[in-house]
Amino acid sequence: MIKPLLILSVTAILFASCKNDMGGNNCATTTDSLQREIASRDSRINGLLDSLKSATAGSTAMTTTTESSAGSSTENGNSTGKTFYKIKRVHTVPADLRAKYPGEFPEGSARVLTEKDLKFLSEWGLKVILNEIYARHGMRFTDSDLQNHFNHQGWYKGNADDVSGKLSPTERRNVAFIKAYKYTPQIPA
Questions:
Q1: Nearest CA to 130 among 97, 96, 164?
Q2: What phi, psi does 2 have (nearest 5°)?
Q3: Each residue of 65-105: pLDDT tens digit?
């Protein structure tokens, strides 16, 4: 998604430069400039991706899948030529605790959360980490998106409307912390 936008913006610069050059002599020079600009922006994008990888070490891992139009990678049977960045969580909770606290965010019940646990989560991620604490105790949700999300989890058994009395002290502390947390998108520098 980033590289196609990059190519479009640099191509627009090229066309603007060629259009302003009445003799057309500048277009060949502009093509060289375009290639240098693409390489420069590509390098900056890769630097940002490397920063994102290192900033989220311990909680996420990023893998890059590049698909070329001549390659064997396809989407719906058609070659796409797109680059996809897949974020995969690497749990910071030991396997025995993940078994005890199922879900995508077992740390919400296993230990006290910190800002580091939340700062790279999306708004939806914050909503899930909060409500997963309740879902582990069987809470049914009035929010249809949340209910649908948890219905698709093999471990979820929604059987109660209020589970606040079942929460551990750690879970109560984490619920208060997540509710008080102000969502601000974090972009690595």
A1: 164
A2: -70, -45
A3: 433 333 344 444 444 454 544 444 555 667 777 788 888 89
The answer to whether residues 109 and 91 touch, using CB atoms and an 8 Å cutoff, is no
Amino acid, single-letter form, for residue 6: L
Question: Of 126, 125, 122, which is closest to residue 187 (Cα–Cα)?
Answer: 122
Taking the complete model, does pTM exceed 0.70, yes or no? no
Q: Give the integer Cα–Cα distance in Å for 122 and 119.
A: 8
The alpha carbon of 180 is separated from its chain's Cα centroid by a whole number of angstroms, namely 22
What are all long-range contacts of 95-102, with beta carbons under 8 Å and residues at least 24 apart? 101/136, 102/136, 102/153, 102/155
The Cα–Cα gap between 131 and 139 comes to 9
Cα dist from 95 to 4, 21, 24, 180, whole Å: 40, 64, 65, 29
84, β-bridge pairs: 65
**Residue 160 dihedral angles phi and psi, to the nearest 5°:** -145, 150
